[in-house]
Automatic annotation (TrEMBL):
Catalytic reactions of this protein: ATP + protein L-histidine = ADP + protein N-phospho-L-histidine
Keywords linked to the UniProt accession: ATP-binding, Kinase, Nucleotide-binding, Transferase
Protein name per Swiss-Prot or TrEMBL: histidine kinase
Signal peptide residue numbers: none
GO molecular function: ATP binding; protein histidine kinase activity
Enzyme Commission (EC) number: 2.7.13.3
Lineage: Archaea, Methanobacteriati, Methanobacteriota, Stenosarchaea group, Halobacteria
Gene3D superfamilies: Histidine kinase-like ATPase, C-terminal domain (3.30.565.10)
Length: 111
């Protein structure tokens, strides 16, 4: 069990939607796993797409874009950031091997 807002499922849906919509292949692969520790729950979404731009990574991890005028292709990743922050969690982005993106959303477990 993790502490999260009621919008969490919408945020996870958005990660899937973003991975599929911005994929460069006809048959994208997007997977999600959930891992638990004593203190947190991690939702890991992995795709085999072209990867995220540095600005979109910044949006997910910090809620800020490198360029103040940059708004990406929509508000979806901003929504993910907001939901994760409102839930007391964090998000980080890594490169998948051999290609793609891994988004790790970490949410606190109730004390």
């Amino acid at each position: 069990t993790a502490s999260a807002t009621t919008w969490l499922s919408r945020a996870v849906d958005e990660l899937f939607r973003n991975a599929v919509v911005h994929h460069d292949r006809d048959a994208p692969t997007v997977e999600a796993t959930v891992q638990t520790t004593e203190d947190a729950v991690e939702i890991v979404v992995t795709d085999d797409g072209p990867g995220l731009s540095e600005m979109n990574r910044e949006v997910l991890e910090t809620g800020e874009a490198v360029d103040a005028l940059y708004h990406g292709s929509g508000l979806g990743l901003w929504l993910v950031y907001w939901v994760v922050q409102q839930s007391g969690g964090s998000a980080r982005v890594e490169d998948a091997d051999p290609r793609g993106t891994v988004v790790i959303v970490t949410l606190p477990r109730p004390v």
